[in-house]
Design a protein that fits this description.
single chain; mainly alpha; 60% helix
Length: 330
């Protein structure tokens, strides 16, 4: 059933990489429009863009969760016993505090730190941060934060310096793929630490306190863990000096993947069905992680989880052999 979208996406991405000139006129027009927008140039754009995308993604998944009981993993397990009642879900009006706790620390960073994007000169970054580029040496390292130069004239970082030229379609596809893979790797180790280190596990337990997994569980996080996810996503983009347009497209792709693995549903066209078999984790595997908590720490793919299982199982075998040898020689 997923063959058609797999072929369509493969063709689209293949053409974007092999023939970038086909897509450049559309990218030129789109980026020219974004550059002319004062909203897009605002330092807070990405924070509000993420909130809007998340609200739409979660809302659409909640609608499907309620109106498609045959897709719910809990009902697939239940088999012939019939559909389980819908778990208690929070109403939008009761989630204002959750939204504010998400937005507040991000807005603080937006309004106090200089934004750094691929294709932007250090000179332009300095000007956006209220520095004199001729007399102050701003740090151009993408991973090193640089505070805004606070003055009465410019008390906050309100604008972000954007690259003058749009990316190519090849650049977009490569950077999006690389950033998702980097995040997947970084989060695997971060997630493993959240489960194995006692202090961090107490923080992470909030994410696992639920009955049937559902889309709202995606953002059921301690503020520290939520901030950690955002910083990891930023790291994944900054380390490859992503173009700002890559970041704009990264947000809906990243949010969709996060909500999808927490959806508690088995979609026939889920990303785990579209990618080659064995590559993707998907909602089933992540639901198993939420149920048992002892495996499947990788969010989107399977490679690190498989490697971790191989290493730990090898260690168990060696421990068993050592124990057996010890018993023999006693």
């Amino acid at each position: 059933m997923a063959t058609a979208p797999r072929l369509a996406l493969g063709l689209l991405f293949g053409c974007a990489i092999a023939f970038p000139q086909l897509f450049q006129p559309a990218l030129d027009h789109a980026y020219a429009y974004l550059l002319s927008s004062s909203i897009y140039r605002s330092s807070t754009f990405e924070t509000f863009w993420t909130v809007i995308v998340y609200a739409f993604a979660e809302g659409s998944y909640i609608y499907r969760f309620i109106h498609n009981p045959q897709l719910r993993l809990a009902n697939l397990k239940n088999g012939a016993k019939g559909y389980k009642p819908i778990p208690k879900l929070q109403r939008p009006k009761n989630r204002v505090r959750e939204g504010l706790t998400y937005i507040a620390p991000l807005l603080l960073m937006d309004l106090t730190m200089i934004k750094k994007f691929g294709g932007v000169s250090v000179h332009d970054m300095a000007i956006s941060g209220n520095y004199d580029p001729d007399t102050f040496s701003i740090r151009g390292n993408f991973l090193a934060p640089t505070l805004h130069h606070f003055t009465l004239h410019s008390p906050l970082q309100t604008q972000r310096a954007l690259p003058p030229l749009p990316p190519t379609s090849r650049q977009l596809v490569v950077q999006l793929a690389a950033s998702i893979l980097i995040y997947d790797t970084a989060f695997f180790f971060f997630h493993l630490a959240l489960h194995k280190l006692p202090y961090l596990s107490r923080i992470h337990n909030i994410h696992h306190k639920h009955g049937e997994i559902n889309p709202q569980v995606t953002n059921q996080l301690d503020i520290g863990e939520r901030l950690g996810l955002v910083l990891l996503a930023n790291f994944s983009l900054n380390i490859i000096k992503s173009h700002v347009m890559t970041r704009t497209l990264f947000v809906p792709m990243f949010v969709w993947l996060l909500v999808d693995i927490h959806s508690g549903m088995d979609h026939p066209w889920g990303y785990d069905k579209i990618l080659p078999q064995g590559w993707a984790a998907g909602s089933k595997r992540h639901a198993a992680h939420h149920q048992y908590g002892q495996k499947y720490y990788e969010p989107f793919f399977n490679w690190w989880d498989n490697a971790y299982e191989w290493v730990t199982s090898k260690g168990d075998v060696e421990d068993g052999l050592a124990s057996a040898c010890h018993d023999v020689y006693q």
